[in-house]
Amino acid sequence: MTLKLSYNLVKLPLLTPFTTSFGTQVDRVAYVFTLESDGITAYSESTTDVDPFYSYEDNITAMHLIRDYLSKEISDLPTPQAFMERVEHIKGHNMAKATVEMLLWDYHSKSSGISLHKYLGKSKGYADVGISIGMLEEDKLVPTIMNAVNKGYKRIKLKISKGKETKILSTARLSFPDITLSADANCDYRLEDIETLQSIDQYNLAYLEQPLGHDDIIDHASLRQTLSTPICLDEAVTSPDLAREAFQIDAVDIVNIKPGRVGGLYNSLKIAEIVQNYGGHAWVGGMLETGIGRAFNIALASNHLIDMPGDTSPNEKYFSKDIVRNVFKMDKGTIAPFESPGIGVVVDTEYLAMMSIESGEIPI
Ligand code: OSB
Ligand code: MG
Q1: How far apart are the CA of 98 and the centre of ligand 2, in A?
Q2: Which of these, 60, 58, 89, 56, lies nearest to 72 by C-alpha position?
């Protein structure tokens, strides 16, 4: 069996800069991995960014982990679960682990001839879709929401930050009193900001996402007791154990599951099960992925355990031209996962090469 692992570092300009409480992203700079064996070509994308702002991992730490540790564990093409057991002694670095784990999911579902969404278990056959809108200049907020509502998105999520929440949410609610609205603070508040956070209750949000520290669940539990708005955790849930603990201490109502953050699809499904067992709700988040990462997210979001609209916009929201030839289309707020084996994307290898700022091979 011959095995070849190669990578491309692609840089794709975003159609609109994406501003969160931790910064503004103007392009997506992502490692794309290709695994070739026995006539099968599998892909994955690291959800890391250039900067360690969403989490401590970045593109360089991910490449270090993949090159120096994780790639050494895949020469026999283990199942995703077996791979995760093998790398359990490596602490953290979930995004790096997820990149390799997802490469194995794509490989094994392709070698079985089954589409990934079916290979993952019971699929609904579609994903409910919401949109994540970054912070914008004041005059752009209402038209941007209007455009998203007209496109049929099932939930509108607005990025907020400390001091800007009132303006953003009051403007949105005044123009759109009835839409399903949520807000994502990306860890910008502390428990001391409780009065500001309580004032958010008046906007009747579906949930408030990750208001407090990236590694906190204790303060979230305190905060949750004083709010009527449900709490959704993103950054803070990095493992199935932490998901269970967050529910055990009543810190959370809803979990934004990102395969990268939690170490891959195996852990994502485990978390979705835990969430359901505790009576919570789960949806699939995004990291502005290219069509490759997006296909994994949409396959996961189609699973029956996922019961809320995710941040899984079609490719056209992000890029004027993606590195895949088949793009997702949204119809009445839903997207159907691809039905061909694995993630089902047809990579535009020429455009991938053209947009690469670096590429190479990793010896296995
Ligand atoms: O917190 O969900 C987040 C993007 C980058 C980093 C963090 C987040 C996001 C998003 C965008 O909200 C989701 C997407 O459209 O891919
Ligand atoms: Mg978030």
Answers
A1: 18
A2: 89
Counting ligand 1 atoms within 8 A of each CB, the residue from 14, 15, 20 with the most, and so the one to mutate, is: 20
Ligand 1 and 287: CB distance under 6 A? yes
The end-to-end CA distance of the chain, in Å, is 12
How many Cβ atoms are within 10 Å of 26's Cβ, its own excluded?
11
Cα-to-chain-centroid distance, residue 176: 26
Are 303 and 263 found together in one domain?
yes
pLDDT by residue (tens digit) across 321-354? 999 999 999 999 999 999 999 999 999 999 999 9
Gap from CA of 63 to ligand 2 centroid (Å)? 24
Q: pLDDT (tens digit, 9 = 90+) per residue, 171-217?
A: 999 999 999 999 999 999 999 999 999 999 999 999 999 999 999 99
* CA–CA dist 184, 211 (Å, integer): 7
E strand residue ranges, 161-252:
181-184, 207-209, 231-233
Mean model confidence pLDDT for the chain: 98
- Give yes or no: residues 233 and 273 share one domain: yes
Residues with a known catalytic role: 159, 258
Same domain for 7 and 76, yes or no, is: yes
pLDDT in tens, 93-149: 999 999 999 999 999 999 999 999 999 999 999 999 999 999 999 999 999 999 999
Supply the residue whose CA is at minimum distance from atom 7 of ligand 1: 287
Residues 210 and 312 in one domain: yes
Query: Do 266 and 212 fall within a single domain?
Result: yes
Q: Supply the pTM of this predicted model.
A: 0.97
- pLDDT tens by residue, 227-256: 999 999 999 999 999 999 999 999 999 999
Same domain, 184 and 320: yes
The verdict on 75 and 36 lying in the same domain is yes
- The pLDDT of residue 205 is 98
**List of long-range contacts for 276-282, beta carbons under 8 Å, 24+ apart:** 276/305, 276/307, 278/244, 278/247, 280/247, 280/252, 280/253, 280/254, 280/255, 281/253, 281/254, 281/255, 281/307, 281/308, 282/254, 282/255, 282/256, 282/257, 282/306, 282/307, 282/308
